[in-house]
Amino acid sequence: MQFPTIEDVIGHTPLVRLKRIAAGRNNTLLAKLEGNNPAGSVKDRPALSMLEQAEARGEIQPGDTLIEATSGNTGIALAMAATIKGYRMILIMPENASSERKQAMAAFGAKLMTVSKEGGMEEARDLAETMIARGEGKPLNQFANPDNPLAHFRGTGPEIWEQTQGTVTHFISSMGTTGTIMGVSAYLKERNPEVQIVGLQPQDGASIAGIRRWPKEYLPSIFDARRVDRVLDIGQREAEEHMRRLAREEGILAGVSSGGALAGALRVAEEVENAVIVFIVCDRGDRYLSTGLFAPEA
């Protein structure tokens, strides 16, 4: 009898219908629960994809040291994947990442380095490039690696199509590295060009883990604006309030970017009817508990 290994259970996540949060106008609102992946986020998919494809090309081999800049979920996923495959992993992240994220990376055996909160992901990416140039490790570079969206073209997109039996009309996703929205868009548009792809970015001044508005010089090269039909700006308070709504009204404990995705999905639902709207719940909320975002209201 053949039993699966841990990498075999990455993907194939549930797609669930919201019951209490109304989408109006006979719309169906569906949440793709990516927190059900082994390391707890949608980033498990590209993490494994980037490692496996680099191995297949002979660019890396077990025992190598890999270096990656991350704000959290990709780092956790890469730390897990590196352990599975036998690599040493150095992760560089802003110092203000939640303690749960840092501890999860360390639990998988990764070495952590931090940069200033003010420098953020841009400083983390610069440091990663400097270390790689010095020969201290090999890159995966989620921001420019086509194997990132490939994971979603091969996995997330087909799953959504099959789980909705081809009835999906709108796909809503936060945009950070942009791998998820790029890969899913490519697949869904291939099956039905009329499916609307809606990306989310933070309003000016908002700091939402997993959603980014990149300076032009740091825009991920895997991003192709032509694959996104519409972009919505999401506010900090709006994302946090909808994150709490997911937990308290639907029993879905998720992170802040997932709250932003719900907020975006509800905006779209106000404008359409008889639609099947899918949004990504990219991770679990338990890795945000120390931030106080779920604390009872005073």
TrEMBL record:
GO biological process terms on file: cysteine biosynthetic process from serine
Pfam families (UniProt xref): PALP
PROSITE patterns (UniProt xref): CYS_SYNTHASE
Domain of life: Bacteria
Keyword set, alphabetical order: Amino-acid biosynthesis, Cysteine biosynthesis, Pyridoxal phosphate, Transferase
Annotated positions binding pyridoxal 5'-phosphate: 73, 176-180, 257
EC numbers on record: 2.5.1.47
Membrane-spanning intervals of the chain: none
Xref: CDD domains: CBS_like (cd01561)
Record Gene3D superfamilies: 3.40.50.1100
Principal EC category: transferase
Domain Tryptophan synthase beta chain-like PALP positions: 6-283
Name of protein: Cysteine synthase
Organism per entry: Billgrantia pellis
